[in-house]
Amino acid sequence: MSFEVALSRRIGERTVELAFASETRLTALVGPSGVGKTTVLNCIAGLLRPESGRIVIEGTVLFDADAGIDLPPEQRRAGYVFQDARLFPHMRVAANLAYGEKLARIEDRWIKQVEVVEFLGIGPLLNRWPATLSGGETRRVAIGRALLSAPRFLLLDEPFASLDEARSETLMAVVERIRDELQIPILLVSHDRVEVDRLAGEVVTLA
Amino acid sequence: MTEWLTPAEWGVIGLSLKVSLLSVALTLPVAYALAWLLARRRFPGRILLDALVHLPLVVPPVVTGWILLVLFGRNGPIGAWLEETFGLVLVFRWTGAALAAAVMALPLMVRAMRLSIEAVDRRLVEVARTLGARPWRAFLSITLPLTLPGIAAGAMLGFARSLGEFGATITFVSNIPGETRTLPLAIYSGLQLPGAEVQVARLSLISVVLSIAALIVSELLVRRSAGSRAHVL
Q1: Residue A112 burial (CB < 10 Å; 0-12/13-18/19+)?
Q2: Mutant choice from B125, B130, B147 vs A, greatest count of A C-beta within 10 A
Q3: How far apart are the C-alpha atoms of A124 and A132, rounded to whole Å?
Q4: What is the ipTM of this complex?
Q5: B122 in helix, strand or coil?
Q6: Does A93 touch chain B (CB under 8 A)?
Q7: Phi, psi dihedral angles at B189 (to 5 degrees)
Q8: pLDDT tens across B84-132, in order?
Q9: What is the b/e burial string over A129-154, where b = at least 16 CB atoms within 10 angstroms of the residue's CB?
Q10: Does the beta carbon of A50 lie under 8 angstroms from any beta carbon of chain B?
Q11: What span, in angstroms and rounded, lies between the C-alpha atoms of B186 and B183?
Q12: Do A104 and B146 touch (CB under 8 A)?
């Protein structure tokens, strides 16, 4: 079972509630804007604490309200690519990529920087400062940084938002490659049906 | 160049610099810790802490000096303990002058650092955590480097304030030539003497130049760290 998620969390005046289990390599989480998809990702990554529920990924219990289990984010090994990328502005691209890699245990690392750089086509960007990158380049570096942190699963928050068609297409091909070649489960948040139909093995709707 | 000023005047400047440097060195970590607490944490009594930190800014410096005397004097609770445990006496010593300057500089340093900590996107720390960094490591590798200009700005501001410290200093450690007679105290003493106008003018000019330089550097650093919306002046 790749993802086994059940959670409930109050955000402002509403409650975000979701329960699903999926086994495919790429699961899409869809729903209208503002419904709480990012909240779900934040709960799975350990940045927000649900009020109740259970989160199990690839057999590891990350959160269980009844059993009192709540792993801190640094122990969950989520490769979280945020909607706004959030590269560290005071480090060049190469240092951004290496940040998570240096913190991972050697035996947990399953991909090398040269492979990631080649995979994502970010070789020419290694010495650049994040502020000088375009939107698509920033996204690719953010994905690379997440891949190198020895994640056990990936969380992608609207990775194709505000990208033009050409860039979107390139990035979609990248995500397909990750899905098919790298063998780690992916949870992708999107509000675009086209992207979802193309990439997802299973679709979960948040209403 | 040494003929510009008399040896006594050089001594006064040297003492002022020594006192101000120690004052900033002592206050830096304390100011940063307070700035971080006030910027990042909610806790009961937070407003009270904020007010306490700002007290030296609004209370008459003489009163601050008097409070220091009560606490750190040789018979005071902290002063007696310091003398017993470390043989450390602060009254009538340049180290006491540094403490007085430190207390007066603290609010300004906290304000400058707090601005720059608030300007750091907290979500960057979140990213670091998801990449495997524990809270302390995330702080050292993300927040601290990004607030470095704010720290430098606070230090410069604190240095300028310490150079100009008068009321608390003269109350706590009095006006002893060579030991606690810093630049402002020397100018004050000069005013009491007939015929020392030139000396007073010279020392005052030096005081103004040093302070303006420190203020400008500090303002530039804060702008750099928190954008041109933020400023200390």
Answers
A1: exposed
A2: B130
A3: 13
A4: 0.90
A5: helix
A6: no
A7: -65, -40
A8: 999 889 999 999 999 999 999 999 999 989 988 998 988 999 999 999 9
A9: ebeebeebbbbbbbbbbbbbbbbbbb
A10: no
A11: 5
A12: no
